[in-house]
Amino acid sequence: MSYSTITYETAERVATITLNRPDRLNAINDTMPGEIRSAVEEANHDDDVHVIVLTGAGRAFCAGYDLKEYAENPETPLTQDMPWDPMIDFDLMYRNTQDFMSLWRSYKPTVAKIRGYAVAGGSDMALCCDLIVMADDAKIGYPPTRVWGCPTTAMWVYRIGAERAKRMLLTGDLIAGSEAKEMGLVIDAVPEAELDERVSRLVDRIKGVPRNQLMMQKLMVNQAYDNMGLQSTQMLATLFDGITRHSPEGIWFKERSEEVGFQQAVRERDSGEPIAEEVSRRRKD
Question: Phi/psi at 56 (nearest 5 deg)?
Fold first, then answer.
């Protein structure tokens, strides 16, 4: 198949999907989620492939949705005029959620290799993989939980439990790969110079296992998460994600991004100062 936002290669029982928008730190556009899903399906249909590796071109794994494009642009599918229709938003974002979850539901194991950043939607993508290996100085987190986002895949709580998930999502902090390993979020964190070799060693241990064995073990583990309500949690999270972009604070953030630029709006959001004080004042009035 021909792809515009990713590359797809196979060699020695391994399919490698590389996010390929390095000039935008592999930020997610309208095309990327569907292409990831198509590449996962291609790997699943290839009997020569036993393992799938997901990585990013250049200096980052994925910087999340291309919010400079979405937030600064007055015409964006992520914010509707009021009154807004939550089901239009849900249809858009739930489709992306399911595209990312193709990595989780893939019959073949998926391994994320992270350098640089795996932020916001990029962390969604990474946490849908079965195993994650990070550079120890790479950063992962979901800053839009402060304003303008809710992780639609909801994988944080399933991977690290309620308290640590709340620690990440109530602050929107980014943490380094070394802390992510200590937290149990990722399987390993190593110096960036050793990242490729560490992932190769892990993949080599997996790729010699018969495909049917890999499939059975993965289906068994995933079924436990389905029994815990993963799908219904993701449905709620996706609805909440739409609400965050249409709440008073969400509208403030969108207008602020258009006014001063996305990067400045993010600095204000993430500064630790009270967010959107004028919204609070209007509520009191």
Answer: -125, 145
